[in-house]
Structures are given as structure tokens and as C-alpha cells.
Amino acid sequence: MPSYLVTGANRGLGLAMVKELLKDPQNVVVGTARDPGRCEALEALTKEYPSDRFASVALNLLVKYTIDKAAEDTAALLPNGLDYLVNNAGVCHQNVVPFESVDMDVLVEELHVNTAAPLYLLQKFLPLIRKGSEKKVMLISSCLGSLEAAPMFLGCSDSYSLTKAGLNMLGRKWGALLKEEGVTVVVVHPGWIDTDMGSHIEDWVAQHAPETRKLPPSESAEGCLKVFQIAKLENAVEYYTWDGTNLPW
């Protein structure tokens, strides 16, 4: 049975991915949240599905030891290894703050959650991924992390863009090394999604990119997972949008 771990599964895109994956009775899904026991959506899924189909584990990307513990807990749940790791959790605290006004303390937190913590997460989960049959990693990034496309997004989530550019580099460089041992890494922009995070840039989008369509989380989740599942090792590392088209690095 294919096994998946999705970080940031308590809401938004992460929750939509978990629900999409659970539609297939063959899938085993682990969802993470800072405090799963206080998340009604995850608690509901725990009651709806047996423990060999869905489980939740605690993971806070700001707290290193919770990543260690999450890796241990997941290894106990998946003794045959992890097939698919979805690094989805992220933050954007300075949505339309220009560079000259970026709060450095907040930026440090954003960099920790969006860039540094995913590196550590992969370090801790890599042994479990190596045991899996599929050996795939998806980093949920953003078009805002593209260096080539950056001039198109002036004034839109500037500090967030820095963190996603760093995440892209993580996937691009480490993914190239992991490819040599059979691990497929893909970087995916999930689109502009109708979530709490996405709502904060509505005015910017209306002014600068009014043609952009806001996606329901379920549509983005379905697209991202399709890209992930059909990705081939020989094509790693690629930078995709949720609909499978390529983005420039």
C-alpha cells in the first residue's frame, strides 16, 4: 500500500491533500500538525478512517525535537518505509511588506519554517524514504521563488519570496544528489489558493495580476498530487506548477 506523509495537514492545501489521498483505499496517510489533538479536521479523519489508513503525528517546524519525534513516530507507523513525503507546511507573515520595511525577526522565523526546517525534516526522514518503494519527495514552493519570474511580483510577499527561493535551491541541489540513489525530488507551485494565506494578497493580485484565478484547495491538491505521482526519476529535479507545466528557476 503506498504510504504518504503530508506536513501542515491541519488546514488549507495540506488538509485537502490528505482528503484527496484518502479517497484511494490503497493509500496509507500520515498527516502532521503542531497539535493534532486540538485540530477538529484531523480528529474527524481519525474517527472516520482506521489507524492503518490514517494517522496524525505532532510536528512543529519551529521546534527541532518535534521533527525528531515525528520521524520516530512515523517509522513506527510505517515499518516498510515511506513512499511519498510532501513538505507542505509553511508561513507567510509579511504578505505585502516591501523589502525596506521587512521585520528582520519575522524574516528569521519565515526562513526557519520555510527553508531551514525542511532541510532538517528531509535529513530526519531520509532513512525512512530510502526504505520505501517509491522514494519520492515533493517540496511545495511558490512561483514567488523563481529568480527569473521575480520582476513580475514586485511588492508581493517579498520576504516569503526569499524563503521559497532558498527552498528551491534545496530541492535543486540536494535533489540532484538524491537522484543518483533513486530518490525523486520535485518542486511544485500550488497556484494561488483560496486559503487564509492566499487571501492576504487579494488586493495585490487584483491590481497587478487580475487574470489570476484563485483555486479551491481541493483542485490544487488534486493537481499537485498528480504531478507528484507521475514524476519520473529521470526528470528530477523539475519545478512545476500544480497543473504540470514547468516554471523557470
UniProtKB/TrEMBL annotation:
It holds the Pfam family adh_short. This is Uncharacterized protein. It comes from Rhodofomes roseus. The lineage of its organism: Eukaryota, Fungi, Dikarya, Basidiomycota, Agaricomycotina.
